[in-house]
């Protein structure tokens, strides 16, 4: 065995798992992740902030910080985590194994950061919370971030979030900086869905991935929790309430860096049952040596198709309203007013008539609910 910063893989997974030689991150990236990143890069002022912080926050300072106040995973420290890291890099064929650190923090968390090269950080709260298979999925999740090149943007998000009040020297107003932080958070929430998929490809154990997400939500009380009931929460969250609740969901989400755990679990299980996942497991997936020939237009088309399908099949009241409007169901202003005020229908017919009309319009979606 060699030091974890070396590029060689002198290991095999602890149990037989499929390896995805030369796999491209395009294989597991969520369409919303790609489109959100494109939108982020187009945001006014992002290039200015990115270049300024890249020059002021050298890679060396990050490494020194973790070397001085964390424990580096290696053959001599946290050996079981070192083995998992090597396994994950072996399975996803990431040639250079990134350094990984364990830092004292009771809050369960993990991150992949770095401007030049990725660094993986796990908190003690996470290490103590998860069992081996659950942790394997988390390590695979972070290696997925590294393979996708997410570390740079995650680092910028961390510094802008923590130092938002101290960056007045950037030739942008605070409003512009907060707009960038909001856009970064939106992208990062989508990137988490991509990396959850990478974690499943590494662990190849859906139940372990589900257990890990449940523990992040409810702690180490698995005997009190149930995967099906947990996923039912996600379904209830998505379709429950009225339009006002939909708006509250958006407002609740804006300050968060991660998607809600129930939503992550539901998204991951949906992907695990898809033909795309099965094709990857069968060895049919995009390769990194094909990335240069990948069509940007196809990527945009896939993202657009994903969003259209999400609106069409969503049970959320706001998304169903958007679908109705897009389908020519009626006037946007009138429908918003009716939804918020409880009104509906034409004069003289009452709300019941308006309600039944809306039911008829959304009826074709019912089988997919």
Instruction: Give the biggest sheet.
Output: 4 strands, mixed
Question: Kindly state the mean pLDDT as a whole number?
Answer: 74
General form: globular
Q: What class, by secondary structure content? A: mainly alpha
- Strand order within the widest sheet? 1-2-4-3
Q: What are the low-pLDDT stretches, counting only 5+ consecutive residues below 50?
A: 1-10, 242-256, 316-333, 345-369
Task: Give the tally of β-strands.
Answer: 4
Written description of the protein model:
Helices cover 59% and strands 4% of the residues. The protein has 17 helices and 4 strands. The protein has a 4-stranded mixed beta sheet with strand order 1-2-4-3, sandwiched between helices. Helix 4 (79-91) packs across helix 6 and helix 8 crosses helix 12 (261-272). The radius of gyration is 22 Å and the shape is globular.
How would you concisely characterize the structure shown here?
The protein contains 17 helices and four strands. It has helices at residues 31-42, 46-56, 59-69, 79-91, 124-129, 132-148, 151-162, 174-203, 206-218, 227-239, 243-253, 261-272, 275-281, 296-313, 317-326, 332-341, 350-362; strands at residues 71-72, 100-103, 110-113, 119-123.
Topology:
Layout: H1 31-42, H2 46-56, H3 59-69, E1 71-72, H4 79-91, E2 100-103, E3 110-113, E4 119-123, H5 124-129, H6 132-148, H7 151-162, H8 174-203, H9 206-218, H10 227-239, H11 243-253, H12 261-272, H13 275-281, H14 296-313, H15 317-326, H16 332-341, H17 350-362
Parallel strand pairs: 2-4
Antiparallel strand pairs: 1-2, 3-4
Helix pairs in contact: 1-8, 1-14, 4-6, 6-8, 6-9, 7-8, 8-12, 9-12, 10-12, 14-15
């Amino acid at each position: 065995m060699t030091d974890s910063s070396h590029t060689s893989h002198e290991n095999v997974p602890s149990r037989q798992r499929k390896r995805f030689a030369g796999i491209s991150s395009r294989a597991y990236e969520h369409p919303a992740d790609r489109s959100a990143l494109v939108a982020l890069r187009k945001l006014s002022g992002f290039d200015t902030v990115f270049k300024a912080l890249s020059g002021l926050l050298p890679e060396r300072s990050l490494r020194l910080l973790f070397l001085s106040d964390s424990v580096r995973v290696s053959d001599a420290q946290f050996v079981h985590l070192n083995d998992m890291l090597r396994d994950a890099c072996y399975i996803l064929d990431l040639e250079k194994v990134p350094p990984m650190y364990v830092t004292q923090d009771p809050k369960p968390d993990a991150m992949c950061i770095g401007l030049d090269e990725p660094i993986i950080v796990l908190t003690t709260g996470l290490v103590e919370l998860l069992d081996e298979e659950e942790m394997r999925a988390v390590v695979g999740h972070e290696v997925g971030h590294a393979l996708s090149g997410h570390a740079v943007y995650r680092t910028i998000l961390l510094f802008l979030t923590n130092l938002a009040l101290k960056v007045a020297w950037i030739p942008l107003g605070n409003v512009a900086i907060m707009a960038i932080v909001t856009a970064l958070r939106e992208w990062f929430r989508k990137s988490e869905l991509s990396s959850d998929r990478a974690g499943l490809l590494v662990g190849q154990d859906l139940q372990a991935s589900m257990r890990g997400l449940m523990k992040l939500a409810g702690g180490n009380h698995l005997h009190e929790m149930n995967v099906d009931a947990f996923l039912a929460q996600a379904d209830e969250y998505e379709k429950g309430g009225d339009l006002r609740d939909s708006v509250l969901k958006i407002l609740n989400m804006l300050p968060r860096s991660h998607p809600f755990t129930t939503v992550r679990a539901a998204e991951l299980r949906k992907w695990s049952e898809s033909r795309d996942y099965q094709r990857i497991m069968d060895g049919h997936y995009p390769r990194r040596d094909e990335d240069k020939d990948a069509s940007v237009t196809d990527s945009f088309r896939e993202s657009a198709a994903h969003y259209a399908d999400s609106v069409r099949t969503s049970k959320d009241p706001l998304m169903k309203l958007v679908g109705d409007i897009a389908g020519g169901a009626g006037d946007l202003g009138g429908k918003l007013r009716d939804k918020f005020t409880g009104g509906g229908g034409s004069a003289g017919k009452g709300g019941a008539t308006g309600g039944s009309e809306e039911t008829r319009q959304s009826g074709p979606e019912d089988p997919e609910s």
